[in-house]
Specification:
Layout: E1 22-28, H1 35-45, H2 54-65, H3 70-74, H4 77-82, H5 87-103, E2 106-113, H6 125-145, E3 151-159, H7 165-174, E4 180-186, H8 198-207, E5 212-215, H9 221-229, E6 235-238, E7 246-251, E8 255-260, H10 262-269, E9 273-276, H11 278-283, H12 299-304, E10 309-311, H13 316-319, H14 323-334, H15 338-351, H16 356-372
Parallel strand pairs: 1-2, 2-3, 3-4, 5-6, 6-9, 9-10
Antiparallel strand pairs: 7-8
Helix pairs in contact: 5-6, 7-8, 15-16
Length: about 375
């Protein structure tokens, strides 16, 4: 197992956020590596890293990612994907990933990653998916040996700036019986609209495989429209800039009127989940229109207006974070209590890409876990 994560208590209580049952919907495999594992894997394939000290390497990633630009943020992945080009590398990283989620109290997680970025050393797309699934299953077994339980699903991602969307969509459908639960597109958002991958989305709709789309992070409402219309997205990856479609008017300094634009109204009324990632949204400048501190994040606005908000890490290595830490940061910023944190987990359980019966069982587990806290 990895080192014990930092402990966080709900303010004024003895309740540990770490121990509360959690659901993770937006967590990238190549953004959650342990620095020590990276160093070990890099040495085995002769890849040079910025440093071979694990603590220094973790700090380097967090510093480089804290740029205010999604494009610069994404450059850090050159090193993480670099050590994930072999079956052994993918399997090891996936196993670590599962163990680290379980150590953080996650009982269900969806791990997203782009197989097309892991073929440099001869793996096929199918072999890459199989390697990750092998690691996931090893991680689940390891966690069970420690007396815990976790379930993991793969989200197969296509890179939006590439031209392999349909091929990757077909890959996802081929492996839907082997751990894959859904599809995603990621990468540079601005200039690469969802409509470029329309053939993939049409195919996925025909095959009834659920879709989430990165949108509303580095681009605004047009990107979200494309995710909903072209992608038929059931969830929005980040989606934070949906707040641009919310108008707040204060009258006489007392009364406040809020108007939702058509996109925001659609998303709220149909309970399309927002995969919000607070620390990442600060790092990439996704919330720059509102400010540059956690208190400026429109998370609470969206929550209070009834949107299906969920809390996520995006890339734990780059943000030097955990799901527990993200919940703690929001609690400190907005004064949330256990009831609020439970709502966020129930929202995620309702939005996860599992059959209805499994979502209901997950909901029951969350309710029971919070009741015991």
């Amino acid at each position: 197992m990895n080192t014990t994560p930092s402990r966080y208590l709900l303010p004024g209580t003895t309740t540990s956020i770490n121990d509360l049952p959690k659901v993770s919907l937006h967590d990238h495999l190549d953004g959650g590596l342990r620095p020590a594992t990276m160093i070990e894997l890099a040495d085995s394939i002769g890849l040079d890293l910025p440093t071979t000290d694990a603590a220094e390497l973790g700090t380097w990633f967090a510093k480089q990612a804290d740029s205010g630009s999604l494009v610069d943020y994404l450059k850090t992945f050159e090193f993480t994907t670099g050590v994930m080009q072999t079956r052994e590398g993918l399997t090891r990283v996936a196993r670590d990933f599962v163990e680290d989620l379980a150590a953080d109290g996650v009982i269900y997680g969806e791990v997203r990653w782009a197989p097309e970025q892991h073929l440099a050393r001869g793996l096929t797309l199918d072999e890459a998916v199989e390697a990750v699934q092998e690691g996931i299953e090893a991680g689940i077994e390891s966690v069970a040996g420690e007396g815990s339980h976790i379930r993991i699903g793969q989200l197969i991602t296509a890179m939006r700036h590439a031209d392999r969307g349909l091929e990757v969509a077909e890959l996802a459908v081929r492996h839907r019986g082997n751990g894959v639960v859904g599809f995603d597109i990621a990468g540079a958002e601005l200039g690469f609209p969802a409509r470029n991958q329309r053939a993939a989305f049409d195919y996925l709709a025909q095959e009834f495989l659920p879709v989430t789309v990165h949108a509303g992070e580095a681009d605004g409402l047009d990107s979200i429209r494309g995710a909903l219309f072209d992608g038929r997205a059931l969830r929005l990856g980040h989606g934070v800039r949906l707040a641009e479609d919310v108008t707040i008017e204060r009258v006489d300094g007392e009364n406040t009127f809020v108007t939702l634009g058509p996109v925001a109204q659609w998303v709220r009324d149909r309970e399309i989940a927002l995969e919000l990632s607070p620390s990442s949204n600060l790092q990439t400048g996704a919330i720059s229109a509102w400010g540059d501190e956690m208190i400026d994040h429109p998370f609470d606005l969206l929550y209070q207006l009834g949107f299906r908000v969920t809390v996520n890490t995006d890339n734990r290595l780059m943000s030097k974070t955990t799901l527990t830490r993200e919940l703690a940061l929001l609690t400190d910023a907005f004064g949330y209590d256990a009831d609020d944190l439970e709502v966020f987990q129930l929202n995620a359980a309702a939005a996860c890409f599992l059959p209805l019966e499994d979502r209901e069982a997950l909901t029951d587990a969350i309710i029971a876990g919070f009741a015991q806290a």
